[in-house]
Amino acid sequence: MNIVLLVSVHIVTGISTAGINHIGLKLAPKESAIVYLTCKNIITSIFSSIAPIHACRFLYASFIGNSGYLEE
After folding, report:
1. How far apart are CA 49 and CA 44, in angstroms?
2. Which of 5, 28, 60, 68 lies at a CB distance of 3.0 to 4.6 Å from 36, suitable for a disulfide?
3. How many other C-beta atoms lie within 10 A of the C-beta of residue 10?
4. Secondary structure (3-state) at 2
């Protein structure tokens, strides 16, 4: 069951990323579309890697106790 869920999440993530890249390509200026998409993907990757860390810290603070999440 976990493998099916994992595969389905990866498929949905890939489809949504392709859609966002397609919209980004249409909105990008013609002469600098590659740079525009590269910067967008770098920013997306950075925030995608930071988000689970903050989510875990927030959940730990909510369920276990105050771990200093809001004081930083």
Report:
1. 9
2. 28
3. 10
4. helix
72: pLDDT strictly greater than 70: no
Q: Which residues, 6 or more positions from 58, have their beta carbon under 8 angstroms from its beta carbon?
A: 69
Tally of residues, the chain: 72
Q: What is the pTM of this model?
A: 0.53
Query: Tokens at residue 61, please?
Result: 């603070």
**67 pLDDT above the threshold of 70:** no
Residue 68 lies in a domain: no
Cα–Cα distance measured from residue 9 to residue 37, given in angstroms and rounded to the nearest whole number: 23
**Owning domain of residue 51:** 2-63
52 pLDDT tier (thresholds 50, 70, 90): confident
